[in-house]
Amino acid sequence: MVSPGDPTRLTHSLSWFPVRSNQYIMGISNCVFCKINAGDLPADRLFEDELILCFLDVAPINPGHAVIIPKEHHTSLTTVPEPTLARIFQLAPKIVQAAVRATDADGFNLHLANGQCAGQAVPHVHLHLIPRSPTDGFSWDWRSRSQTYESDPSEIADKIIARMHKNQQQ
Description:
This protein is of the alpha+beta class. It has a domain at 28-141: HIT-like (HIT family, subunit A, 2-Layer Sandwich), CATH 3.30.428. Helices cover 26% and strands 15% of the residues. It has three helices and five strands; from the N terminus they run αβββαββα. Strands 1-2-3-5-4 form a five-stranded antiparallel sheet, covered by helices on one side.
């Protein structure tokens, strides 16, 4: 684990990093998060163990905005091993609570986009930990949709449940 006083803690700026770019989709060797994990790119590391790495986001929404990544490269949440997922979600509340207190924020968002169409900008699974305050000016700009399904919501629920059962049997 990296602590604030640890001399190996990386404190370099990554302001040049093109977070909103898709240029790193070429593969693991070009994955920016794998490069950070390997120490080939600098980052402000907050926590590290054998399964995960947490560091400050290079294009933060608010001060204290961090991301947690699995050290093993996965582009989809669905392929991350259960022990790694458990570790991510065990530590997320502790890390974001520390970030909220350190930045005098009032709340937080946890955000994970899976797939480019969902807004995943870096093709490596990552959970955003974002301290929030009522006056931070950030908005997800999500809008409510009326339920205008092509099929009955109950039919969709039945299909999802059937798929979950099928996945458990595999």
